[in-house]
Design a protein that fits this description.
This protein is α/β, with parallel strands linked by helices. It has helices spanning 24-48, 73-76, 94-106, 133-143, 160-169, 188-197, 211-221, and strands spanning 10-15, 56-62, 81-85, 112-113, 146-150, 173-176. It has one domain (10-221): Metal-dependent hydrolases (TIM Barrel), CATH 3.20.20.140. It is built from seven helices and six strands. A six-stranded parallel β-sheet has the order 1-2-3-4-5-6. It binds zinc ion. The site of zinc ion has 5 residues, from loops. InterPro entries: PHP_phosphatase (IPR050243), Pol/histidinol_Pase-like (IPR016195). This is PHP domain-containing protein.
Length: 223
């Protein structure tokens, strides 16, 4: 391992979907300013070198119903990592959800497809979304978009049978904790166990790559 610098953890900020009309533009501007302040903090943290790791700036952006992204292009362009995820209308019929995901994973701004089925496996639970996994994962492989292995205990997404389809398709993977609080980065072990159980090649896991390789991949995808 020597001096290899690891890229994780990425600082990832949810980009809440726009809901309702009202003073939408003002709210969006407010959020933009908040995010810019956060990213400035990330830059300061990296400059100070106090964490001993490089913190990457990034965002989790909503995939809209038509597969577009709920974010301005100029906002996404400078970021190291863009995760795109479905957080609404998870019960669309399979053809519509397939088209939605295909458009999103082919978007050059998108590096990672987050929690692809949206299922919840704890509490009251939530069934996975329906879509043509072979087509979506084939598109991920072709576009070089990584499939997230979400290690959050409530999610553990994708389910193993879908993860196997993504392995067969030749996808890249990103093991993410979906952490929202201190201590939750430990959940990465859940994702590693899942990857091992499903035969994921460690070389295909972008979060296992040295920093320079990871950044070269996200830059090559571009926004
Ligand atoms: Zn999410």
């Amino acid at each position: 391992m020597g001096g290899r610098r690891r890229a994780r953890p990425a600082a990832r900020r949810h980009h809440p979907g726009a809901r309702g009309a009202g003073p939408l533009r003002r709210r969006r501007r407010h959020r933009r300013l908040n995010r810019r302040a956060q990213w400035a903090l990330v830059a300061d943290c990296n400059d100070a070198g106090e964490a001993g790791v490089r913190v990457l700036d990034g965002i989790e952006v909503d995939i809209l119903e038509d597969g577009g992204l709920d974010a301005d292009r100029d906002l996404l362009a400078p970021l190291a990592v863009v995760v795109a995820s479905v957080h609404s209308k998870l019960r669309m019929d399979a053809p519509a959800m397939t088209a939605r995901l295909l458009r999103a994973v082919r978007d050059p701004a998108v590096d990672i497809l987050g929690h692809c089925t949206g299922r919840m496996v704890t509490g009251r639970g939530r069934p996975p979304s329906s879509f043509d996994a072979r087509r979506v994962f084939a598109a991920c492989a072709e576009a070089g978009t990584a499939v997230e292995i979400n290690a959050r205990p409530e999610r553990l997404d994708p389910p193993d049978e879908l993860l196997a389809v993504a392995v067969d398709a030749g996808c890249l993977f990103s093991i993410d904790t979906d952490a929202h609080a201190p201590g939750q980065l430990d959940w990465a072990a859940n994702g590693v166990r899942k990857a091992v159980a499903c035969g994921v090649d460690p070389e295909r896991v972008v979060t296992n790559w040295p920093l320079e390789r990871l950044l070269a991949w996200t830059r090559a995808k571009g926004a």
